[in-house]
Amino acid sequence: MLRDPLGWIPLKFKLPLAFVVMGLVVYGLSALVVTYTAREALKQAISREVTELAGAQAKLVEQQLALLSRRAEDFASDGYIRESAERLAQGAPPDSAEATSRRNALAEHLAKNKLPLEPAFANIHVVHTRHGTLASAYPSPPAP
């Protein structure tokens, strides 16, 4: 026959102790279920919110890039820039004093008249399909 391990505790204390222990077990299990359910709901809500914010941010960036590309097209249609680029591409050799003077004048025009119009632009390059970069508002330092 099995012996009661709590035989030394009187019955009048065992019964209330059993109810307390059972209540704590039920309370603990229900707390686990509620915590798990709330955690999953919170994760889903956060995921939805982040997805919506990312979509809105992507749309904003896309609109900003479209605006900047239109601004670049506007700059490309500038008569002075087009004329200077054509002269540099078809004129004197790139190392000549005349080409350097034209390149410097175009770079100054870009730095003073075009670059301040758009704060998102850090530099402006005039590029020709066959001759590469003809001028820059701020020429980059030579590569080491």
Walkthrough of the structure:
- The chain is 67% helix and 6% strand.
- The protein has a two-stranded antiparallel sheet.
- The chain has 144 residues and is mostly helical.
- It contains 3 helices and 2 strands; from the N terminus they run H-H-H-E-E.
- A hairpin with a 3-residue loop joins strand 1 (125-128) and strand 2 (132-136).
List the helices and strands and how they pair.
Elements: H1 11-76, H2 79-90, H3 97-114, E1 125-128, E2 132-136
Antiparallel strand pairs: 1-2
Describe this protein with a few key phrases.
single chain, mainly alpha, 67% helix, two-stranded antiparallel ribbon, 144 residues
Structure at a glance:
The chain has 144 residues and is mainly α.
The best one-word shape is: rod-shaped
Describe the strand arrangement of the main beta sheet, using strand numbers.
Answer: 1-2
Output mean pLDDT: 86
The topology string of helices and strands comes to: HHHEE
Helix content: 55-70%
Helix count from the secondary structure assignment? 3
Structural class estimated from helices and strands: mainly alpha
